[in-house]
Amino acid sequence: MNRQRSFIGFIVAGAIALLVIAIAGFYWFFAKSPANFIASTGQPSAAIFVSKLSPVMVSLLANPDRLQALEREEELSKLKTSLFAKSGIDYKQDIQPWLGDEITLAITTLDIDRDRENGQQPGYLLALATKQAEKSREFVELLFSKRALAGANLAVEQYKGVKLISDNSQPEQDLLAGAVVGEGFVLFANDPKVLRDAINNVQAPDLNLTSSSEYQKATKEVPKGSLAVAFLNLPIVAKWQGLELPEQLYNSQIISLVLNPKGLLAESTFVTSSEIVPPSPPLSKPVGALQYIPASAGLAISGSNLSNLGNSDLAKLWRQATATIYGSGEDVVSRLAKPLADVQKRWGINFPEDIFSWVQGEYAIALLVQKEQTTPDWIFVVEKSENVEQGVARLDAIASSNGLSISPLTIDKQKISAWTELTTATKKSDVKEGASFSIETKVQGLHTTLGNYEIFTSDLETMNEILTAKDNSIIDNSNFQDSIAAIPRPNQGYIYLDWTKSQNLLERQVPILKLVEVLGKPFFNNLRSLTVSSYGTDTRSLKGGVFFKLHNS
Known about the structure:
The chain is of the alpha+beta class. Helices cover 32% and strands 29% of the residues. It contains 17 helices and 20 strands. It has a 20-stranded antiparallel sheet, with helices on both faces. Strand 15 (414-428) and strand 16 (435-450) form a beta hairpin. The protein is elongated, with a radius of gyration of 28 Å. The chain starts with 5 loop residues before the first helix and ends with a strand. The relative contact order is 0.11.
């Protein structure tokens, strides 16, 4: 029987929605009224109710009513109304007076009854902090009395000093269990057994999440003042998805959301028992290769040393994460980097072997999204070295083997090598009946040397933009500067995505993104750009962050 809908379903959806709303609106509230915000400790108190075998726990560490900035768009009011519409509960009257500063949602077990024959029934636990225990008890009584009036049969039991209330499953209203534990929390679950286990976890501390060494290591990385925190037990998450990972390096992950005057930083730490080896020495400032990336770029990736990328712990993390979420990373890469994947396929090259292997210095990769084009233009900048010269010669040889000519060109006195293809085009003759032919030269790519860098582009227009545009690089862009300023240094470089320029392209490549945008409308309406980087010096964890730059910030 499916027991994951009804009131608990609305609460679960609401808890997740609150996280999305928090991202979209809290930056504005914080900037306007910082005195009204009390920073959290970053540690979910409800972790004592959650089993250390739980795959996922998510916590909002602020009272929803502190998101008052969102009332200007009535998003929070709409959420409250829809959340409790089917329960007959009035949020302002019945919940607001006692709701505290934490909402924690956890999947406590992959299968409540551990019976494979009747399917997998995860246990859901929702913990709401209360600041008035008596009023919260009145709320629980009210909730279940309304369900009884709707036809449910109530069951009441005392379990280790705690009053548990549950009801039977009606066709339109699935099983729900609730309790007030001590003076601090109201608990809801989709089965009384989940509540009994939660109480056991408190009274036997070695069972709960706070006793997990992985959780203890992860929470040390959570900054104070975090708005929300999520903890993932990665091997159990993979098991939940029915996957057998070919490579298991990281054991757990913790994600925290931290407010910033310019936006919001989502910081993530992956914990492992192995020694972490960074792909390259950390960088104390942005690489010089970015000076050749135009400010019009929709996507820019920069760093140093691609030669060891495939064997790095960052690459192992990517393979593990994509396998856990998607089952395979191949489709993810091909969708997100389709223009580069098309180049690889058309030329018959292997990026790791034919390009990454000789890039040991600085590099920058960019995509320029043109409104009238479905495929963006690309730029690749690499710091000059002996290996680079050999690499360029290798690419020239590959171009020749694919039937392309190496043609010299000059733009604004700059010597350029172009990989060109001669094609024929037919046109109707004006002189006599029949067809005549013309020969056209099609540029498949170009490269040139500027200063200490070799620059590759997809077309003449992009190369001309690089050569003629002065003081108009992405490194001079104020939005880019604000974004990287929020990322700690030293770091491994940046992945910068201008959302306003790349949104249409990303929606075409990843159709499910449109659904995500609908669910997180307040956030995506305010999103201007996002910047990703990895940093940190701990040899037993890999830390990184995504900075969301928001409009009006």
